[in-house]
Design a protein that fits this description.
Its cofactor is FAD. It comes from Anaerotruncus massiliensis. One of its GO terms (molecular function) is oxidoreductase activity. Keywords: FAD, Flavoprotein, Oxidoreductase. The chain is an alpha+beta fold and 467 residues long. It has 15 helices and 18 strands. Strands 5-6-10-8-9 form a five-stranded antiparallel β-sheet. A four-stranded mixed β-sheet has the order 1-2-4-3, with helices on one face. Helix 7 runs antiparallel to helix 12 and helix 12 packs antiparallel against helix 13. The radius of gyration is 23 Å and the shape is globular.
Length: 467
Amino acid sequence: MSYKQMTAADIAALRELIGDDERVFAGEEIHEDYSHDELGGTVHYPDIVLRVLSAEEVAAVMRYASREHIPVTPRGAGTGLVGAAVAAEGGILLDMSLMNRFLELDEDNLTLTVEPGVLLMEIYAYVEEKGFFYPPDPGEKSATIGGNVSTNAGGMRAVKYGVTRDYVRGLEVVLPNGEIVTFGGKVVKNSSGYSMKDLIVGSEGTLGVVTKIILKLLPLPKRTVSLLVPFPSLRDAINTVPLIVRSKAAPTAVEFMEREVILDAEQYLGKKFPDHSADAYLILKFDGPSLEQIERDYEGVARLCLEQGALDVLISDTEERDESIWKARGAFLEAIRGSTDEMDEVDVVVPRGSINRMVAYIHALQSELGVRIKSFGHAGDGNLHAYILRDGREEDEWQRILHLAMEKIYAEANVLRGQVSGEHGIGYAKRPYLRESLEPQVLELMRGVKRAFDPENILNPHKVCGL
């Protein structure tokens, strides 16, 4: 589909529409950061960047873009890993980061209403100070909540609490034609027709622009305890995960890691990890209303791990110990990035009973293809992050080995009845693999939804299902 090439008249009209030159950048004024996301593999510059402040401004921009047939790409903090916030067709980039107000904390209905530019770490600080809990825990705490909604972000606590979609009660959305609509609200139950809210969550900015979010909150757990469990091998560690899940102990998080990723994190942070006795580790977290209740859960899991060959079970029940473990876990992505010149990521998810098979397959693939693949992930919910490292390869060889590795990993995930993405989305970079993994009828239904919302295909084109 062809789009209008933006002219000087379009730039001038949009500047006038925003009415504040400090919130408009065009041509050479556009910073390089706006051309890519956090992974950096997909690079496209928009023709203009508009830093919007309100739903009304977004609506005015969308009306103009619809009338002139100009593509529009919404963007938050740009921390995504699949090119979803990159302006693949140029045009208008909507920077939502200045829409960052807390609008209402409703203690009667246990909801928090915010604008999409509020950062995840700001939400945690705001609600926890008041005794509330927002459970979704994606690794990138500097991401915006709008970005989390757009990708249906998950994170480490998903094994117990679920993902972003489970905590979105309502959305204000600007449609591609500029109309402002509301989906959902503060109600706990809703059987009133199709769940339009849930279509928007995870749609990666292809169906509408989210301008207000109503989030569900929980009471803040009073106590948390973490376990660091060293194992003599990755196989021993990962084979224990299905047994932990089956034990019904309800850990908040079940993460796995290998020694080499820990060493990368140590170098990146300049701090030592609490233990170096093993080749692989599980990290588990438990939370609850009292230490006694948590102990009942984690003691059974500790015995199970030792029965499966764990070298030890280290209990972390102080803030200082916890920080040393989870700070290292949070640094894995940046640490791996710093160990090579370029990388790409597979965010594959399989039924959690099959996570051990998926991890073993990827581990063996390194030798088969002669490439380094560093992996870690949310073992408790079957979501694995595997990073394929370039390590100085020439471009042609890098592209060959990268695509071969991805094809093999996604094919194995398909055999295990998994999916292409557990939490990072499809965006621009992973579209071919989504097409290969879905039945044609399902892909056409997705495209039908896109056409219903955006018949002119101006909103974030070439993303997800690829119109």
